[in-house]
Design brief:
Blueprint (H helix, E strand, L loop, with lengths): L6 E2 L22 E2 L7 H4 L3 E7 L13 H9 L11 E8 L4 H17 L3 E5 L5 H11 L4 E6 L20 H7 L5 E9 L6 H9 L3 E4 L10 H5 L4 E5 L21 H13 L5 E5 L10 H17 L14 E7 L6 E7 L5 E6 L10 E6 L1 H8 L5 H10 L1
Parallel strand pairs: 2-4, 3-4, 3-5, 5-10, 6-7, 6-9, 7-8, 9-10
Antiparallel strand pairs: 1-4, 11-12, 12-13, 13-14
């Protein structure tokens, strides 16, 4: 089955101003699937944009299936940054007869693009499409660190045996899916009044990393180490405050500011291990003056800028590129090692594999903050180290 079977072409002229695009605008920098499906292997693209015209799984946000073209109308007016784009717009995945058909198309597209070393950038559609995005990694037999930017946890509280996949339950589908390829889940930006306390207990029991919106009020940069750990990211546009992004039927007065969302997107692009990202739940029906479409376009622009500024400094490079710091716990029970990149000043901690777990590696490297190192210097064990060790056991 060819990738071309899943996509319908688009006409870039419909997004062009009356006088056409300027030579510096992305409308002339990006390639498009128009009439003939591109040879993805020959062209050596870095990023493939496509939209999914299906919102049947979106709860109370009907209309978000139309997001793709409204996003494009703003995105292709933006100027290319200080990078050379190698981007293809593959057009739209049309809703299948059943939701499972759409999921199969998204899963297959993401899987094949990753195999070609092309990063899929998905414009949804409902956030339930995250489940299809995740299934691609099962097909690749790859363990997944999943980061979701959302104001709530999309878990099915009743935990029925056969959970219907929706934008409010897709996480349950991922957590319960067998075989299980999920190594870690992180949430960025949950708001406590939207979260069942039992769900928080579940997250704690599974040693997952969940972060309240308030943690980032003073410094959005605290999201960077969390994002740096992700293989795939799902961004719910409802996580942005309605004053900045009102085009979502579930938008609320609190959330990330627009500039913070752009920084999160840039951090995501800079993540060397990230191989797919989806932006979901943008609903043009509620978009006054195209404000949310413009913000989403700018977020994707920042993601691309981050991608072309990747540091490639994960600590597997020659030792001359990083510094190892060793600390001892106050109770004398052991030593903890931290790694700092000379290239970017970013930090990782080494978490040892329990005996017999890994034959090839001694340590699992986890992105962390300088504050985690300071905690260890003071003889205390960082909470991130302990949760990671428990997941490795």
């Amino acid at each position: 089955m060819s990738l071309s079977d899943f996509f319908s072409p688009i006409n870039p002229d419909q997004f062009s101003p009356k006088n056409g695009f300027y030579t510096s605008q992305l409308g002339l920098k990006v390639d498009f699937f128009t009439d003939r499906f591109p040879d993805l292997e020959e062209k050596k693209y870095d990023i493939a944009i496509f939209s999914v015209k299906d919102d049947r799984g979106s709860i109370n946000n009907s209309g978000c299936s139309l997001a793709g073209d409204y996003f494009r109308a703003q995105f292709y007016l933006l100027n290319e940054g200080a990078f050379t784009s190698k981007i293809i717009d593959l057009g739209n995945i049309i809703a299948g007869n059943e939701m499972s058909d759409t999921y199969f198309a998204v899963k297959t597209a993401v899987q094949q693009l990753i195999k070609l070393n092309i990063l899929p950038l998905i414009i949804g559609g409902g956030q339930d499409l995250t489940y299809a995005q995740y299934l691609a990694y099962e097909a690749l037999e790859q363990k997944v660190d999943l980061v979701v930017v959302d104001s709530k946890f999309d878990l099915e509280e009743d935990q029925e045996e056969d959970i219907v996949t929706t934008s409010n339950s897709y996480l349950s589908k991922i957590f319960l899916h067998q075989p299980n390829f999920l190594f870690n889940f992180s949430n960025i930006g949950y708001q406590t009044y939207f979260v069942n306390q039992d769900s928080l207990k579940v997250m704690d029991k599974l040693y997952f990393d969940v972060h309240r919106l308030g943690e980032f009020v003073q410094d959005i940069g605290l999201t960077e180490p969390v994002i740096r750990n992700a293989n795939m990211i799902s961004f719910d546009m409802g996580a942005i405050r309605s004053g900045d992004a009102g085009a979502n039927a579930n938008a609320g007065p609190n959330g990330f500011y627009g500039e913070d969302a752009c920084r999160i997107a840039r951090y995501a692009g800079m993540n060397d291990k990230l191989s797919s990202i989806g932006f979901y739940e943008f609903n043009p029906a509620f978009d006054k003056n195209s404000q949310t479409a413009m913000l989403l376009a700018q977020m994707v622009w920042y993601f691309i800028e981050g991608y072309y500024n990747r540091k490639q400094d994960f600590p597997l490079t020659p030792k001359s590129q990083y510094i190892i710091y060793r600390t001892s716990l106050k109770d004398g029970s052991g030593e903890m090692n931290f790694v700092k990149s000379k290239r970017s000043d970013r930090w990782w901690m080494q978490v040892p594999y329990p005996t017999g777990i890994s034959k090839n590696e001694r340590y699992h490297l986890v992105p962390c903050r300088y504050e985690d190192y300071n905690t260890a210097v003071n003889g205390e064990m960082p909470d991130l180290w302990w949760r990671t060790y428990q997941k490795l056991s």
